Amino acid sequence: GTFTSTQNVEKLTPSKVFLPDDETIPSVPYLLNIPKPPAQNLPTPKFDPSKAEMLSKDPTYSNTVQTTGNKPTQPAASKDGYRLGAGDSIYIKIWSGDHLESEMSGEYMLLNNGAIELPIVGRLLIGGLNEKAATEYLSQALNNYIINPIVHINIQGYNSQKAHVLGAVNSPGPIVIDQPMTILTALSKASLNRTKRHDGAWAAQKVYLQRKNDDVLVFDLEALLQRGEGNVFLEHGDIIYVADGAYVYVNGKVEKPGGVPFRDGMTITDALSHAGGHTNTANLKEVYILRNGKRIRINVKKIFQAKAPDVSLKEGDRLFVEESMW
After folding, report:
1. Phi, psi for residue 150 in degrees, rounded to 5
2. Which of 112, 177, 181, 281 is a plausible cystine mate for 161, CB 3.0–4.6 Å?
């Protein structure tokens, strides 16, 4: 098949737009000798938050693939160009030699099973094919009806190949993969929403990429943004989930109880400072870290007096400052 540019493509009248109801398309037994490409399967986008929780607790979780290197890995679908699927709109021009077959030429929308209904020829399944393969397939099918068919296909509407971006972004939802697209491009389109700590630095955040086979890839957001580590190419059905950020939680007799964005190397005194400091009724001898179901007692007064070293916190720690009895 050959191709033509999208320039100078004639506008169609409504009568030339073929959008048949899939339920009324008849079977076409005389086309059974034509190889049928695979129909498009569209998954229901749904990120499993439990996987993110399991990943944070167990880095060896079986469905997890930790990223290595900084070069994107491009899927086969992207190497071959955009793959047609349900909901895509294409413009087809068909010639028999120098004669334009106006009754067949026009705009078509792919149905849920990836098929179009071509006059005279009938149903043709082109879902899963790229533009070049679909052109060759239609040319092969038309050989039974037209002498020396010439087919031109232009994609008018990209609607089938989608990834979903969820979590800490300003515009969550589906993103159409109308060209090879990486995670960073998708995050840019969805307007990434980053979290800052009390000192103005960025909080540690994770990005989870769930594939159609349920594998989950985990990326450090800072490494992704600064060095491109894990900036893989997206595939149809991918789900990107941006975690709000890692936190420790400070409660009890502090000025601003609640979550504090975590960073590597954070200590108890750092966390107390982020929480606005302790109140006048705080008992600094009775400060506890709740970690993995254990209660760890810390004498913060000695730390302030430089009589004891500061204590490092871990992501998810809960810090509680008791009230003084005096």
Report:
1. -120, 125
2. 177
SS3 of 271, please?
helix
CA–CA separation, 227 vs 125, rounded Å?
42
CA torsion, ordered 230, 233, 237, 240, to nearest 10 deg: 30
19/1 Cα distance (integer angstroms): 24
3-class DSSP assignment, residue 7: coil
> Which pairing describes strands 173-176 and 162-167: parallel, antiparallel, or unpaired?
antiparallel
Backbone region of residue 121 per phi and psi (left: phi > 0; alpha: psi in -120 to 50; beta: other values): alpha
Tens digits of per-residue pLDDT, 137-195? 999 999 988 888 999 999 998 888 889 999 888 899 999 888 888 999 999 999 988 87
Helix (H, G, I), strand (E, B) or coil at 321: strand
Model confidence band, residue 201 (pLDDT cutoffs 50, 70, 90): low
Q: How far is CA 210 from CA 64, 98, 241, in A?
A: 9, 50, 8
- CA 275/CA 258 separation, integer angstroms: 7
**Helix (H) / strand (E) containing 216:** strand 216-220
- Name the token pair of 291: 């970690």
Q: Mean pLDDT over residues 14-28, rounded?
A: 34
Where b means 16+ CB within 10 Å and e means fewer, 212-230 reads eeeebbbbbbeebbeeebb
Question: Is the confidence at residue 49, as pLDDT, over 60?
Answer: no
